[in-house]
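User: Let's play a game. I give you a shape written as tokens, and you guess the letters that built it. Ready? Here's round one.
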């Protein structure tokens, strides 16, 4: 018998940062990254920060991970930052 687990869809957060006097930040959350929008924003002198948003469900850490976190205090995340095309 085969058990299939459905993965929850990944949600990306795209932060569009204006590099002018206003320094406004526009945040988009979606399951796909709009690279054309990012390219246009970069052409106009802005910066872009992309990261994945973790699901809201919190799972308790395993004993090994808990000890590891206490020891290092670091949590691994994946992020991308673009400031030009």
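Assistant: Ready! My guess for every position:
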């Amino acid at each position: 018998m085969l058990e299939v687990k459905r993965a929850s869809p990944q949600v990306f957060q795209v932060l569009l940062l204006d590099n002018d006097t206003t320094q406004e930040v526009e945040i988009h959350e979606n399951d796909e990254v709009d690279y054309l929008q990012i390219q246009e924003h970069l052409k106009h002198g802005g910066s872009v920060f992309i990261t994945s948003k973790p699901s809201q469900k919190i799972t308790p850490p395993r004993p090994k991970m808990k000890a590891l976190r206490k020891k290092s205090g670091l949590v691994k995340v994946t992020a991308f930052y673009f400031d030009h095309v």
